[in-house]
Amino acid sequence: MTQKRLKLSWLLLGSLIASTGTSFIWPLTTVYMHDYLHQTLTLAGIVLFVESVLMIGGSYLGGYIYDHFNYRPWLLGSIGASLISMFLLIFFNGWPLYPLLLLVNGFGGAIANTIINALATTIKHHDAAYVFNMMYFAANCGVVLGTFIVGFVVKYNIRYVFVVTFILFVFFWLIAQRHYRVPRKVAVPEKTAATDPLLPKKTPVFAVWIVCGLLLAYLMIELGYSQWQSNLAVYMQSLGIGLNKYSYLWTINGIIIVIGQPLINYLELHFEINGYHKVYGGFLLFILGFGSLIFAKDYPHFILSMVIVTLGEVIAFPTIPALVASLSSEAEKGKYQGFVSISASLGHAIGPLLGGVVIEFASYEVLFEGLTFLIVIAGVLSMIITWFKKI
């Protein structure tokens, strides 16, 4: 019996549902722990740090599983772990079960996300750049939808947030169980794979160097991007800019992504755009966006910075996994997609903590200057590596 090929439409629907469900949880985490559970902001930050560390481990594990084992039971099991954690949170959402179940959800989600990204590389009837652009678009539609709806749901009862998230994860699990199937890879001893020309080889050394350069720059960008989700809110309030105006920046972020991503897809379908030129153009926009924060003292300047950063995000973020997919061998697709996820999670894990230390001992301006400098150095280094290593 011929196995059906994986359809992009089901990956996109799953990404939309999972992202919507996740977006019900993350905006409330710090507020819920502080205002509802009466824990300190420091403790909330520690929980988020531990979650990010577990997500790093989950990303690596997901890539290893995809490359070496039958991914399906692990994929369904990891989604199931998130599903069960949300179900338990409906009834047990106090301290300390709330953060413990949150960690289970984060770990399971990281495994599932990496496996799904690896599955996306198997879709050959679309260009890899198009596939990852569309998945990024679907995920961000979910973020916009989830963060918009959660504001209405939480007004009635915080428990309803977990109910809705649980229902969404049930649908996600059913989609994965029914449609996320690709032919099983046969595990081959490494020695055999190295000598048999018909079997997939390891990723070439030159490609590994290019991937390392790209992911180093990606890590530096995520260090900066995490400041928008943490320390920027405090900074803006210190300048007399209200929290509601800070939240509007994320509305602007979502609108630009939802409008900009289809435009990028249209241009790529009708014009030949070099992926490396695209990603380095995105890096340049991030440098300009973070650099502009050095001088941002009023709300219009923060809007301008967010617009520039979001344009960089739209251009660079979907391109990075697509380039990594094109550089990695068939035998190591999961491994390198895992490294992409690890770079993002690592930036989110240490970014807020690093930013807090710099702010405490120096200033916000020094933080923005340092981040801009790091992105410049990493971006230039990545370009140099690509220039010398790419054939």
UniProtKB/TrEMBL annotation:
GO molecular function, one term: transmembrane transporter activity
Protein name: MFS transporter
Localization annotation: Cell membrane
Matches recorded under PROSITE patterns: MFS
Superkingdom as given in the UniProt entry: Bacteria
UniProt membrane topology term: Multi-pass membrane protein
Regions crossing the membrane: 39-62, 74-92, 98-119, 131-152, 158-176, 206-228, 248-267, 279-296, 302-327, 339-359, 371-388
GO cellular component terms, semicolon-separated: plasma membrane
Record's keyword terms, sorted: Cell membrane, Membrane, Transmembrane, Transmembrane helix, Transport
Domain named Major facilitator superfamily (MFS) profile: residues: 210-391
